[in-house]
Write a structure and sequence with these properties.
419 residues, alpha+beta, FAD/NAD(P)-binding domain, Helicase, Ruva Protein, domain 3, 2 domains, seven-stranded mixed β-sheet, seven-stranded antiparallel β-sheet, 37% helix, 25% strand, binds flavin-adenine dinucleotide
Length: 419
């Protein structure tokens, strides 16, 4: 039996739920088909189960964080920006809080409350959410001017389809890139999907031996020759396989999208708040010159790391600063500000928070989220070639594009009825 709706939303994650709310509140008949037994798996696991919903910034701040992709998001974020996310949650009784990093979380620290807010808002509409329903294909019937969405338990028919199947990261959550093939069948180019916001693996045993050490503020720079490809600053965690934490995750897309990893160099800055000249001046101050190198450097960075820095700089830790040669001082500072590490890969899609790549933005109308090739076909969320840094930006992009898709479909349907 065919089930007919105005809109079928494929995937009930952040983007799918917002699309459904947005369209259903405009009076459209909405059916959401979700592969998992429950919606919003990633919302629940996000932010260490606290769900960093967005960032404490204005619309411009969101767009800037996406660099070139920001232009594509302008209309979407303009229609549903960070304030709207906070307001929607507040309307559902979920207060939010801003942390020192600008990340916004539910005040309860419970991702569950965020998902409950979306679900309860959706439940007040006539939208139907069908779970445990994996979609297998999406086709368009020209004669009937309708889409057929084939799912494991029968076909669904609709005037509009929104693909919100996400990317390929954390495939255990149901995100196995299913939507790409359907998008491709409508002529969309797929920018090769790669893991992003993913921990880095290292060859350096000195780094993996520091497993468990966290630096609250460190810099990570990825360079090709003398050119910086991507540089970040934030908390950095040494692990048994390499590097994790926001600073490492935020540069990972430069590693996974590199055509030749061997051409990249990656360096760590253990004191990003200080210029090399400032550290040099510190070494020169009279009181400090009487101290051993090990004790002074251990004031700046954790002791275990300090001894590695001394070893790599080839300076004797027990030597007095005053005895340190100019060359030794330069080497020491260089290893604090620019310690090279040998990145040999990442932890892959299994541990990636997002996917870089996906449905090419060239083929989607940024003002509506509609396909440029197939009227009635829409995209929202991570299935698109959009990925942002850590900090709530990725959810914001999913919410904004989902909301815009829902509104655009409502307009399309109103225009159809009017004509
Ligand atoms: C561990 C982790 C932590 C994260 N923390 C944060 C954070 O704190 N803040 C932040 O901004 N971002 C975070 N992210 C990223 C964020 O979760 C994603 O950017 C966001 O979920 C993307 O939303 P989406 O709706 O596009 O895709 P998803 O949330 O991935 O939803 C896609 C949905 O489609 C369903 N689906 C897939 N294929 C089919 C099919 N064939 N049929 C039916 N349904 C299908 C999936 O089951 C899934 O429910 C985190 C990600 C991970 C993995």
């Amino acid at each position: 039996m065919e089930l007919k709706s105005d809109v079928i939303v494929v995937g009930a994650g952040a983007a799918g739920l917002l699309t459904a709310i947005s369209a259903a509140e405009r009076g459209l008949g909405v059916t959401v088909l979700e592969k998992n037994r429950k919606p919003g798996a990633k919302i629940l696991m996000s932010g260490g189960t606290r769900c960093n919903v967005t960032q404490d910034t204005d619309n411009r701040g969101i767009l800037d964080a996406f660099h070139q992709q920001g232009r594509f998001l302008r209309t979407a974020v303009g229609r549903f920006g960070p304030d709207d996310v906070v307001q929607l949650l507040a309307d559902e009784g979920v207060e939010t809080k801003i942390e020192s990093t600008g990340k916004i979380f539910p005040a309860s620290d419970r991702a569950f409350d965020v998902l409950t807010a979306f679900r309860s808002r959706l439940s007040r509409t006539d939208a139907e959410l069908i779970t445990d329903c994996s979609v297998t294909n999406v086709i368009f019937d020209k004669d009937r001017d309708l889409f057929t969405v084939e799912a494991i338990r029968g076909a669904h028919v609709a005037a509009n389809v929104v693909l919100t199947t996400g990317g390929m990261s954390f495939p255990g959550c149901g995100t196995t890139g299913d939507g790409y093939a359907w998008a491709k069948s409508f002529g969309h180019e797929i920018v090769p999907p790669k893991p992003a916001l993913v921990p880095l693996t290292l060859r350096d045993s000195w780094a993996t031996e520091l497993s468990g050490l966290t630096l609250p503020d460190a810099g990570v720079a990825v360079k090709r020759g003398n050119k910086i490809v991507l540089a970040t600053r934030g908390s950095l965690l040494f692990t048994h396989f390499g590097l994790s934490g926001p600073a490492a995750l935020d540069v990972s897309r430069a590693i996974t999208t590199a055509d030749n990893l061997k051409l990249l160099t990656v360096t760590l800055d253990f004191m990003p708040g200080y210029a090399e000249s400032e550290l040099d001046a510190e070494l020169e101050t009279a009181d400090n010159r009487k101290r051993t190198i090990a004790s002074l450097v251990a004031d700046w960075i954790p002791k275990r790391l300090a001894s590695i820095v001394c070893e790599k700089s080839e300076v004797a830790p027990e030597q007095r600063i005053a005895e340190l040669s100019k060359k030794g001082r330069t080497r020491l500072i260089q290893h604090i500000k620019s310690m090279p590490v040998s990145v040999n890969g990442t932890m892959g899609f299994k541990k990636a928070e997002v996917t870089t790549g996906g449905v090419s933005l060239q083929s989607v109308d940024a003002k509506t989220m509609c396909s440029k090739y197939q009227p009635g076909l829409y995209f929202a969320g991570e299935i698109l070639d959009i990925d942002g840094p850590i900090g709530g930006y990725n959810f914001q992009a999913a919410f904004s594009t989902g909301w815009l898709a829902g509104q655009s479909i409502a307009k399309r349907m109103e225009a159809k009825i009017g004509s």
